[in-house]
Amino acid sequence: MTGLKLCWPTDDLLIKLWNWDRNWACQQVFEGHTHYVMQIVINPKDNNTFASASLDTTVKVWQLGSSISNFTLEGHDKGVNCVDYYHGGDKPYLISGADDRLVKIWDYQNKTCVQTLEGHNQNVSAVSFHPELPILLTGSEDGTIRIWHAGTYRLEFSLNYGFERVWTISSMHGSNNVAIGYDEGTIMIKVGREEPAISMDVNGGKIIWARHSEMQQVNLKALPEGTEIKDGERVPVVAKDMGSCEIYPQTIAHNPNGRFVVVCGDGEYIIYTAMALRNKAFGTAQEFVWAFDSSEYATLENSSTIKVFKNFKERKSFKPEYGAEGIFGGVMLGVKSISGMAFSFYDWEQLELIRRIEIQPRHVFWSESGNLVCLATDDTYFVLRYNAAVATRARESNNRHHREDGIEDAFEVVGEVNETVKTGLWVGDCFIYTNSLNRINYYVGGEIVTISHLDHTMYILGYVAKENRLYLNDKELNVVSYSVLLSVLEYQTAVMRGDFETADRVLPTVPHDHRTRVAHFLEKQGFKQQALAVSTEPEHQFELALSLGELRRAPPPTPLSPRYAIRTRAITVHCCCSLSVLVSARSFAN
C-alpha cells in the first residue's frame, strides 16, 4: 500500500481511499453501508483487505480494487461503533463493539460469530486485540475498560479511572503499554508481565521459551562450529518449534535435573517432558514451585491451600496458619503470608514449620549446597545461613525457642545489602544477580563485584560451569553471555567455607590476571597472609607487606610507580632512623 492512505470514515456513508503521492487524489470509493461509518481497520495479515464498522448494525469486510464489500457480518441489534483484527497467526478473528452493549468475536473465514461478551452498562465504543498478549480490551461509554482473556473469553479485570466515556484504545507493538482515550483525558497503562516466559536447563544447555502459546527450544551446544561468543553480544541461537501449549504460558521452569518443564498460566499448570513436550501431569494452580528433589513440587491452589506432590501424585495438602499470598521452592518450601507480615519456611517431608521471619520477599534463591539462601525484598536483600544440624537437633528433641515462630537458631543473617534484585542464582557460595541499575553483580562474603553494566533490562537464565559463562535474555528473547570464571568463584567459595585445602588446590587454575582480584577478596575477609601470597600487583603487595610488618616480602622498588617510590623512601627513613623519625611523603614530594 505504498503511497496510499485510507481516510477516517465520515458521515456520508462512504469510505474513500487516497493517494498522497498523487497530491492526495481520491483513488477509490467504497459504497455499501446504509448509515454512518464509525471505524475502519486494516487486516495486519493482509494489507489489501480491511473491515469497517457502521451504525447500520453491520461489519463489512472489503478488498482494495473492489468498490463493494466481500461480505457482511450481521448479529448486533444496534449500531456498531468499533472493530479490530486479531494479530495472531492461528485465528481468523475480528472483534466488534456496538450500541447494544455487546462485544462480538467473529470468524471472518466462516463468517460466523464465535463468542459474545456481555458486561458493559452502556454503548461499547472501543475494542482492541492486544498484539502481544492473550487478552482483548473493550471500552464503553460507562467509563470502564474491561480486559478479557483472548482464549477463554473470561473477564480478567475491570478498570475505571473516572475520566468519563472511553473513545479509543491503542496498544504499542513490542510493548505492554496500552493507551486509552477518554472524554477527560488520556491514560497509559501497562498490562501483563514484562519478564518473558523462559527457562534454561544448565545441565543440558537447552533453553525453552514461549512466543504467545507456541513453545520453542534452543540448544546452546548446537551452535555452529567455530562460533565465538563475546561478552555482551547476542548469541546466534536458532530456535526449534516444539508445538503449541494448551494454556498461555506466563512462567516456564525446568525441574532441577532438567528432565521436565512446567508451564503455568491462566490458573493452571502443565508438566511436560523437556525434550518433546509430552504431557506428564496437569492441574489448577495460582503458582507452582519445584523442590530441590527433582520429583517433588508444590502448588498454590488458592489463598488458603497448598498441595505438595511427589512423582506426579498428591502427597499432602495443608493450610498455612496465616494464609498464602505466594510460594517459593528450593531446599525448603517458602510461604508468604496474606497479612504481609511474615514469611515462613517449611520442610518438604512433614510440612513442619522451621522458621517464621518478619519479612516479605519478592524472590527467594537457595544455594546448591542448601547452606545459604537469599531473601530479596523490594529494596534490600538478605543473605541467611541455614544450620541444618541445629534444626535437626531441635526437631528431634522437640526443644524450641519461641515455638510459634519455629526454630530460632535455624537461620543466621550473614549479609544485608540495600539493592533491588531483579533476577539471580547461586554458584557455590557466590550469589550472582541483576539489579535495578541494570548491572550484573555477585555477592560473596560481604564483598560485591560488578561483572558488567547492561544497556537495558536483562534476566539471568543460568550459569554453565563447563564454559565459565553466564547466560541472560531480554524481553525480546535475545540471549547474551558473559564470562564468569568458575575457578575464581570456587576459590572464593572455599575461602568462605574455611576450606583452605580446597582453596590451595583451586588456586593454580585461577588465571594470573585474576589473582589480584582474589587477593583483594582475601584481604577483605581478614586473610592478609594468604592475600600477600596470591596478589600479583606490586602496589597491592607492598600495602599488604607493610600492614603485616613484613617488608622483606615486599616487591623490589624498581617497578614501583613514582607515588610508591616516595612512600618507600618515607618508610625506609622510618625503619632505619634510630630516633624513629617519621618523614612524611609530602616532604619528599616537595
CATH class of the domain at 4-190: Mainly Beta
> CATH superfamily assignment of the domain at 4-190?
YVTN repeat-like/Quinoprotein amine dehydrogenase
Rg computed from alpha carbons, rounded to a whole number of angstroms: 32 Å
List the total number of helices.
8
The number of strands is: 45
Please state roughly what percent of the residues sit in beta strands, choosing from under 5%, 5-15%, 15-25%, 25-35%, 35-45% or over 45%: 35-45%
Numbering strands along the chain, what is their spatial order in the largest sheet? 4-5-6-7
Architecture blueprint of SSEs:
Elements (H helix, E strand, L loop, with lengths): L3 E3 L8 E5 L5 E6 L6 E6 L6 E6 L3 E6 L7 E4 L5 E6 L7 E6 L4 E5 L4 E6 L6 E6 L5 E6 L3 E6 L5 E6 L5 E6 L5 E6 L3 E5 L7 E4 L4 E6 L2 E6 L19 E6 L6 E4 L5 E6 L2 E6 L5 E6 L2 E4 L5 E5 L5 E5 L2 E6 L7 E3 L4 E4 L6 E4 L6 E5 L5 E4 L5 E5 L4 E6 L1 H10 L13 E7 L3 E7 L2 E6 L3 E6 L2 E7 L5 E6 L4 E5 L5 E5 L2 H11 L3 H7 L8 H10 L3 H7 L3 H11 L13 H15 L8 H5 L1
Antiparallel strand pairs: 1-2, 2-3, 4-5, 5-6, 6-7, 8-9, 9-10, 10-11, 12-13, 13-14, 14-15, 16-17, 17-18, 19-20, 20-21, 21-22, 23-24, 24-25, 25-26, 27-28, 28-29, 29-30, 31-32, 32-33, 33-34, 35-36, 36-37, 37-38, 39-40, 40-41, 41-42, 43-44, 44-45
What does this entry show, briefly?
By secondary structure, the protein is mostly beta strands. Among the domains are: 4-190, Methylamine Dehydrogenase, Chain H, CATH 2.130.10.10; 361-482, Methylamine Dehydrogenase, Chain H, CATH 2.130.10.10; 558-590, no CATH class.
